[in-house]
Amino acid sequence: MTGNLAKLFACAALPLALASGPVIAEIKIGVLVPDSGPGGLFGPSTRNSAMLAADKINRSGGINGEQIELIFADVGVPPAEAAQAALRLWKGEGVEAFVGMHDSAVREALLGRFAGQVPYVYTPVYEGNSCAPGLYITGETPSQQLAPVIPFVMDKESVSKWYLIGHDYNWPRDTNALARQFIADAGGDVVGEEYVPFTVSDFDSSLQRIGDSGADAVLVTLVGGGSVGFNVSFGSFGMDEQAIRLGTLIEENTLAGIGADNANRLYSSAGYFGSIETEAAATFAAEYAAAFGTDAPALNGLGQSAYEGLMLLAALANKAGSLNVQAMDAAAEGTAWSTPRGDNTLKGRHMAQTIYLADGTGGTFTIIASFENVSSSEACSS
Q1: Considering the entire predicted model, what is its pTM?
Q2: What is the CATH superfamily name and number for domain 144-270?
């Protein structure tokens, strides 16, 4: 792997190259990323991670002996537009499978379009309980990110009064519906809850409500730029003196946008951080730096998830012997594969994983706790 890999992928649909020379790709894989909109913050690292995975898959013999080519599409747009973009790749460009790192509203629109006819690996943090033919999940669910973490944080910080704030769509609402129970089980109370449109950039009134509620903990389910704006305002207003923050979608790029001055008592729960000190994570970090340089977009759980998704797609298709949805569904349960998060096994179309709690105080994530092999209670029955 060389530093020229990033240049090789300057265009969205260039074939991959092996050390021995150019590859004639035979299988087109659609990779759906948010290059625009609130999630645009995650696009560059997602693309890089996907390209790294595709290179590794091809070097290892491809999918059922055939080399793969990635075709990217921007799905940081309204769900109907995102579905049209995916449809163009599928029907117009001959894409045979998809890996998606995007929001839940787009996922639901895509499931309606795909109708179980094409394999689709969905990779980011999400609300759980999405089950459909041909759909496979690698992302963390609320029972993984919050069930073990909420009681730990409440005990560590001696907090009990929670305020829930998120963007107004299904991931935050469904996540918080479950969070309410986790909070109650840990002896806490929810003292306020609100959802804001993606267009909101001024959080002054929200901060006033949080202050008036007496909350000493805030669960943040805002996305990308909205999360940055809220947390910057939170820190600027000195709200960190009243309450801690726990985010389930605050990764390294978001933390950089928030800045060290506004990150006091800010926690994040995820299955991957760039600072994880394991052999698998260290190897991935070294390969990422070698391919894209030390000034590449920061490693983070959302970007890395695209790598994980592509590696799962290859493992599933190689086990099934094809990209046929029925064959892959039959082979899915128990499929094993390895990624920067470690060795994984698919169970109920989801995966158990280690969950890390990181403290962002000072502007960088420090892992302060880990919870091993946490299964998802929002997995599928088959």
Answers
A1: 0.91
A2: Response regulator (3.40.50.2300)
